[in-house]
Amino acid sequence: xGAVVRDIAELVDVDDPGWPVVAEAVPSSCVVLPPDExxxxxxxxxxxxxxxxxxxAVVLNTGGMVLHxxxxxxxxxxxxxxxxxxxxxxxxAVVDPAWAPVGGLVLAHDVLGGVFALNGxxxxxxxxxxxxxxxVYFAPDSLEWETFDGGQGxxxxxxxxxxxxxxxxxxxxxxxxxxxxxxxLRDGITTYPPLWSKEGLSDVAGTTxxxxxxxxxxxxxxxxxxxxxxxxxxxxxxx
Length: 239
Prior knowledge:
Layout: H1 8-12, H2 19-25, E1 31-32, H3 37-47, H4 54-61, E2 65-67, E3 72-74, H5 85-89, E4 104-110, E5 115-119, E6 135-139, E7 144-147, H6 152-167, H7 176-181, E8 187-192, H8 198-202, E9 208-213, H9 214-227
Helix pairs in contact: 3-4
């Protein structure tokens, strides 16, 4: 028997929707991008999560969220200048109940090429640490996956409540806000020496930085893992 697919009404028309909780927590340093209703509903339908969950709430009600003056991009249900969750994770064009993202669901990228993902059911088979349903982070300074203590809801609320500043403490450099403000939402910042080098990590402010497409940044990090003999990180998202 095939998987049962809940229709969009079952996913949207719920008691205690999660969006008011998220909306109340959004700080002034965060921009919520407007949603395209049809695209958001299509993304939610493929995910098969309800709008009661914070993941479903973000997917249904936003075209993404840009946190902490542009440092972190959280993907929503529709795309544009910022890609949507479906584009980033390669969702099928037509809802397929048998489809699942390889390794896990990419939730967000930071400007340095770091990746937040939600572990899938078979995350260990793809070299991801942690448990199914746990958020993990691919760190550009180590080129390895690291665990985050909690699932998508806990991660999102923590990030909205000043977590970006705490999580990236030591990574910000003088004038970073102006550099980030000049980026497109599909671009990131590369550093030389790279962050995974001793020189790059010890003095981010002293690196040479330049804007680059996020896609090339992610591809470079994945390629470098192979060059350095590190584990293949698996899909890091399509931007």
